[in-house]
Amino acid sequence: MTDQRREPDPVLITDAAMSYEEELAVRKRRYKIMMGMRIPCMILAVVFYQIPWLAVSLLIVSIPLPWIAVLIANDRLPRKTEKVNRYRGDRKELETTEHPVIEN
């Protein structure tokens, strides 16, 4: 059997953001998901035509989806908040005791 010890979290060496390609892929995926929600809303509105309030509500929800999808797709992604694991080494913190000051 292998040893199942957990490795410590990797050390963060940069605060760099995602690459442009990765960010663009995430934004495209969000756009596709939002636009993909529009067609089912319209189909469900047709299916529930006998319940007018539900059909109209689904159509009203589907109308602004393209504009919302474009706004969200063109917006920058928020920066991730993550616990920073910086390298500290095995050195002790600076001393906190006061030292005498010699003046002339």
Can you put this structure into words, describing what you see?
The protein has about 100 residues and is an all-alpha fold. It has a domain at about 30-75. Helix content is about 45%, strand content about 0%. It contains three helices and no strands. Helix 1 packs antiparallel against helix 2 and helix 1 (about 20-45) packs antiparallel against helix 3 (about 65-75). The relative contact order is 0.16. The mean pLDDT is about 80.
Q: What kind of sheet is the major sheet?
A: none
Count of β-strands:
0
- The total count of helices amounts to 3
Based on Cα principal axes, name the global outline.
elongated
| Cα separation of the termini | 70 Å
Q: Roughly how much helix do the residues carry, as a percent range? A: 40-55%
Mean pLDDT: 79
SSE ordering: HHH
Which class best fits the helix and strand makeup?
mainly alpha
Round the Cα radius of gyration to an integer and report it.
Answer: 27 Å
Q: Name the beta content range.
A: under 5%
Uncertain segments are: none
